[in-house]
Amino acid sequence: MNCFSLTLQGDVGILEFNTPNSSANILSRDALFELDQQLDQIAELTNIKTLLIASGKDSIFIAGADIKEIESLVDSKEASKMADVGKQIFDKLERLPQLTVAVINGACVGGGYELALACDHRVAGFADCIKIGLPEVKLGILPGFGGCIRLPKLVGIAKALSIILPGKLLDSRRALKMGLVDRLFYDPILVEQAKTFASEVLAKREVVRRPKRTPLQKLLEGNPLGRKLLFRQARKNVLKSTSGHYPAPLVAIDTIEKMVGKSHQEASQIESAALGELAVSGISKNLVQVFYLDEAYKKRTWTDVTRTPNKVKKVGVVGAGVMGGGIAQLLSKHGVVCRVKDLNQQALALALKTAKDVYAYQVKSRRMKQGQVDAKMSLISPTTTYCGFENVDVVVEAVVERMEVKKQVFQELDQVVAPDACLFTNTSSLRVTEMADSTGRPDKVCGFHFFNPVHRMPLLEIVKTEKTSDQTIATAVSFARQLGKMPIVVKDKEGFIVNRILLPYMNEAAYLLEEGIAPQRLDNIAKSFGMPMGPLELADEVGIDVGYHVARILENAYGPRMKVAATLERIHEAGFFGKKSGQGFYIHKGNQKSVNKKILNHRVHELSVENDEQITKRLIYIMINEASRCLEEGVADSAATIDVGMIYGTGFPPFRGGLLKYADKIGAKNIVADLRDFQNKFDELRFEPSPLLLTLADSSASFYERPKST
Amino acid sequence: MSDRIAIIDGIRTPFAKAGTDLAAMKAQKLASIVIRELLDRTAIDPELVDEVIVGCVANPMDAANVGRVAALMAGLPQRSRGYTVSRNCAAGFESVTSGYEKLFCGAAEVVIAGGTESMSNIPLIYNKHMTGLLTDLMRSKSAIAKLKTLASFRPHFLKPVIGVVCGLTDPVCGLSMGQTAENIAMRYGITRDEQDEFALSSHKKAVAARDKLAEEIVAVPVGPDYKSVCEEDNGPRPEQTLKALGKLKPYFDRQSGTVTVGNACPITDGASAMLMMKESKADALGLTPLGFIKSYAYEGLDPAVMGLGPVHAISTALNKAAMELDQMSFVEINEAFAAQVIGCVKLIQCDDFAKKHLGRDQAIGQLEPARLNVNGGAIALGHPVGVTGNRLILTALRELKRRGDDHAIVSLCVGGGQGGAVILERAKL
């Protein structure tokens, strides 16, 4: 492989990284080895004064280290050694007699930016594709090629932590402001300008001044006491945002703290040791797994590849409720004209307000200007009739969750829209087939299930009925991506995947409450497992009326194993609808919430003796069991699809690798054993292990690698 | 037979008196709403729209070339073009006649011609003393110089220049629009009672026409809070009486004047838009035009009696169309002021005036009250200056359709001393 090529122009050498037969430049073992050899040669070229490191790819500088190599690491010593090797090569780069400049023309992340850090200077273009940063912690590791050492030296400890801990990527303007790069040049003449820049620096006509440390920075970073405070605060912030489930950022803080005042040699050892530990941890493996899922599902085609999806320029939205308003906002944000229909003007005004409120935040956080918002909002046009639906490409129906109403709307739509228009329903739990059959175009009907709040939740469940054509699915998938969402395609059965799996969990929480578990304890147990919200908090957030309605639909569809907890019913009857009505399981006042004492009266028992572990198992295993049914019924085509659905649709903790990845780790046998135990103790039907789970337990197979016949 | 210029359909917002229901809506937003709604109602492919022409007298400061801004806001393709026209009170005519010219000479195939005005949002500005002070302050270098400059401040510096008042004053003759109406009343002896009676009938007709007018109106949810929806014109008063009108003091000439806020049009917010193309294009696209433009004319006259402009313009437009006034199913003379409309009617029927000023042998024709402003006019509905011309055409075409009649003429007076008139046609050829 020839990844690197050196061209000499006068006293300037340009080392171009251009991996053959690949769209990206990755610092694999082989590429690093080649770089090492190149550097040895370059060190000998005394007539060369300047070395530019550039990329031969259009929109990628270097996309980081090879994740496959990281994933394969099982021995922490081996992992540390790999980091050492990389560091030694970058140290060699740093020691080169030439003036070295990294010429960043695209993605410059992880190991790629660590290479740039080892250069004397970094310059970049302005293009949107330029993303600079150290996102290692997102994979459960930390920068191991010297990033933890060099970045704090370059920009100060506080700024370095603010880059490394969240693992966020910056565009080139922000990178310049933070001091991550020294100069920005126009993209088409980037290399030329970098050359000029280098010669000016050599001639001392140009001096690079890095952003000055503010007095506060000096106060905090310049003495042991200040640093102690700084690191303590950083730890506190990390714990607050991760609830301690993610060790990588904490280790990164420890590592950088330990390096203070140490030699480069010692610091290198500290960094490698830390990386070694993290890289082999289960959490890192899980995060890498989720990263792969994300990469694969972002591109997954779901239909025959050659199919060209229909263009979607104008969309009709029927139903101006919270979902309708949210969908309209999302459409307009992405420049899609939408016509929103509801029965009366007041409902429509409310939908516009929903959209406006989402945009108001964009203005407040200075992401958009008011004029831009006004323009986007103008793409939403309200109507009380179907006028304007004649030329829509797609309709998204978002009316109330009642089959008769939905069928009526579909019948009407079938009459007014063009013959080639697709009809999508945002139903969360009703059968799409029934709606499709009320039209003369069932092949053009599918489910298109957004999650609430629409602008924040990344998942989109696309529901394919027996009759939905591949063309319709291709259009739906590409449209979902156009809107920045992660689509998964599932089959048509009540609740599809996410609600079908999540509702039993929320229902189980209601049973546990009934048995006497305190609400906060219950929510805390779920959160300490890693769920972003406790089940009761979640119920309050989505609305108990909504949750109850869906739970009822599921009970009707799936029978006694989904029997709605009596508590839930009573609370619903009492009119406690959650956050929107001010009280649900909790009483909400502004951002404050306290347990709603009134609901405690609805409990059957006063006290429970169950331990936390058993409660966690009841909550999680009931989901695993239902997910298993989704798989065996073919509602989801693979365990990966379910895991993507649960991570993007419910915030199921990525560090667990996904619901079924987690199940595989526990083992079907153990899960079945516990379910059996719960059957005896609590409810025969609710905890009845699914046939697939039993098969897996018998054959010691896993959800991810199950025999084809099941 | 030549290819006629067709108006396919049109739509407008409700007209709301300035400072009321639509006060929070910017002119560009109002225009984008009607353009968007027009695209939806006609179901035309936005890619086909070549040009957007919007009449606007007080172009908002934060939307240079409001026509283009509104077009983009409404989601028209970037390659489409847009500009803004002003012929003062006839800006809403001018957008249509400009569109006519563009279509006629082939510079465009599909045009949206509209108008927008948010008279609520016409700003107050610093007077020249204050502006001077601020400029001097910027130029003052030292702190002492700055203090010195500040010391030159006088309270009257804070008296603002009111944009609306400026806009409604003719700089050349120095008269406000109301004063030019007083001139006409004075010259032709039009009494206060005549004017008030005319105003009352405008309200009565507009109230009676509510359902008809609703056809041309799109409801506007009022941002930014969307607490209300503006669904109809808020000017017409069902409870209006002569007694109430009679109580109002003359506004422009306190002692001997006759023009009051009751017999003049209110300043108003609103927007409208119409889809235009050649008849052949409409046929090709399978669109049924609402009607056609038969002829149009603008004429200039003494700014001090600008309210008589319609007489001149109507005469010329009829000549161009080779038609007579009695062939018109009805006649619209925009009601800037009751005095001015009454004056126009007198002169239209006056042989002497026709001979002296219009180059005719005899009067333009007889104009019976029953044929004049049949659905009420600006005294009741309001007069968003950039929009009214558009509304007159839109309302008239729909009225012709209801009547099953062939022709109507619409006209208006223009501040600065002009008149405009358009003859509309529904006849099949």
Automatic annotation (TrEMBL), chain A:
Keywords, alphabetical: Fatty acid metabolism, Lipid degradation, Lipid metabolism, Lyase, Multifunctional enzyme, NAD, Oxidoreductase
Pathway membership, UniProt: Lipid metabolism; fatty acid beta-oxidation
GO biological process terms on file: fatty acid beta-oxidation
Pfam families per the UniProt record, alphabetical: 3HCDH, 3HCDH_N, ECH_1
Domain annotation 3-hydroxyacyl-CoA dehydrogenase C-terminal: ranges: 495-586, 615-699
Domain 3-hydroxyacyl-CoA dehydrogenase NAD binding as annotated: residue spans: 314-492
EC number: 4.2.1.17
The reaction(s) this protein catalyses: a (3S)-3-hydroxyacyl-CoA + NAD(+) = a 3-oxoacyl-CoA + NADH + H(+)
Alphabetized SUPFAM superfamilies for the sequence: 6-phosphogluconate dehydrogenase C-terminal domain-like (SSF48179), ClpP/crotonase (SSF52096), NAD(P)-binding Rossmann-fold domains (SSF51735)
Single annotated GO MF: NAD+ binding
Family according to the record: In the N-terminal section; belongs to the enoyl-CoA hydratase/isomerase family.
Listed name of the protein: enoyl-CoA hydratase
Naturally occurring in which organism (per UniProt): Rubripirellula obstinata
Highest classification ranks of the organism: Bacteria, Pseudomonadati, Planctomycetota, Planctomycetia, Pirellulales
Name of the gene this protein is made from: fadJ
TrEMBL record, chain B:
Keyword Transferase found: yes
Classification via InterPro entries: Thiolase (IPR002155), Thiolase-like (IPR016039), Thiolase_AS (IPR020610), Thiolase_C (IPR020617), Thiolase_CS (IPR020613), Thiolase_N (IPR020616)
Keywords: Acyltransferase, Transferase
All copies of domain Thiolase N-terminal, residue ranges: 5-280
Top enzyme category: transferase
Any GO MF annotation of the entry: acetyl-CoA C-acyltransferase activity
Coiled-coil intervals, chain numbering: none
Classification via Gene3D superfamilies: 3.40.47.10
Domain Thiolase C-terminal: 288-426
Active site, renumbered: C89 (acyl-thioester intermediate), H383 (proton acceptor), C413 (proton acceptor)
EC number, as in UniProt: 2.3.1.16
NCBIfam families per UniProt: AcCoA-C-Actrans (TIGR01930)
Record-stated family: Belongs to the thiolase-like superfamily. Thiolase family.
Protein name: 3-ketoacyl-CoA thiolase
Organism whose genome encodes this protein: Rubripirellula obstinata
